[in-house]
Amino acid sequence: MTATVTVREDDVLGFLLEGKLTEEDYTEVLIPTLQEAIDQHRDLRVLMQVKDFGGWTVGGAWEDLKNWPMLRHLDKMAFVSDDSWDEVLTWMFKAFAGLSGMDTRFFREERLEEAWRWVREDP
């Protein structure tokens, strides 16, 4: 997968995730970017745009679980997806968000601007 930072504005971050999420995507892009922002702002708002989602590698899934405590610093998370994102993944992330206490919303890719407006609103 390719994980890239698309927006870095104070306590708002944007990521574009394409393909299959790997351990390197976590260790080289997602975790360092999130940690740096947490160190500066404590609580964050994040938009994850997903294209051609192919799941996780074993290492990617492990990094996801291992870094769970970091999620308590996320006030809001918007997921923007194309047709590769299915209902099961939406349900899984809603459950995940419920456990972490963050406000999470899902948007189709044609509503990207609306997702940005929502994530930039104060929590």
Automatic annotation (TrEMBL):
UniProt xrefs under InterPro entries: SpoIIAA-like (IPR021866), SpoIIAA-like_sf (IPR038396), STAS_dom_sf (IPR036513)
Matching SUPFAM superfamilies: SpoIIaa-like
Gene3D superfamilies: SpoIIaa-like domains
Protein's recorded name: STAS/SEC14 domain-containing protein
The organism of origin for this protein: Candidatus Methanocrinis alkalitolerans
